[in-house]
Write the structure tokens for this entry.
Amino acid sequence: MGGSWARRWVRSWMRLSGRSLVGRIATRLAVLVAPPHYLRERLAALSKDRCYISADATIYHDALELGNLVFIDDRCLIFQNQDGGAVRVGDKVRIYRDTIIETGKGAHFSIGDHSSIHPRCQINAYLAAIEIGSNVMIAANCAFYSYDHGMAADRPIRLQPLTSRGPIIVEDEAWIGTGAIILSGVRIGAGAVIGAGAVVTKDVPPGGIAVGNPARMVKMRADLLSPREGDAAPIAPD
């Protein structure tokens, strides 16, 4: 954070930071001399609320529950539409810039400890929940939709009622690749990997690797294990 004067400046203002108007002004003043992006995560520990919410983030939600040392970056939006359920964010969760999280029509969103959502993700929980486990990595530009639009021919698409095949569940330690789209009714098992750009419409088992549109299983992570140290290398044929 630069010299000692800069560190003192940041600490002094972060002690006053928070979700109130005064707290947001204090946050804005603190980051004037703070480094950007990942290096701002450490500011959460300096806040009186033990979390960092960028002064440029928008929180429009009356059922937001934040854990300890949460980081919410610039221009994130957490939005509660009509009848939207809670947003629960675990300890040390990182939500990076330009991400949008919405709840509506009775659905809630939760994300477990130590998980991360990278820039420009869209998470819409309507009709059915979206539940993300702990230690989950969600890469940039991913989208999660726990609902679908009806497509009956008797009315325009824009007037169709929302439908859902059920909640989206992402279990612990999963990795969602850049630009993946996860649709309603899907469970992604613990430790599974979703390839970049995949469109996931069916369950992925624990430890599975799924790629493509629509996503399909290509192998299990266990298949990628290298030989243990000390094992004899295979002998090539003459």
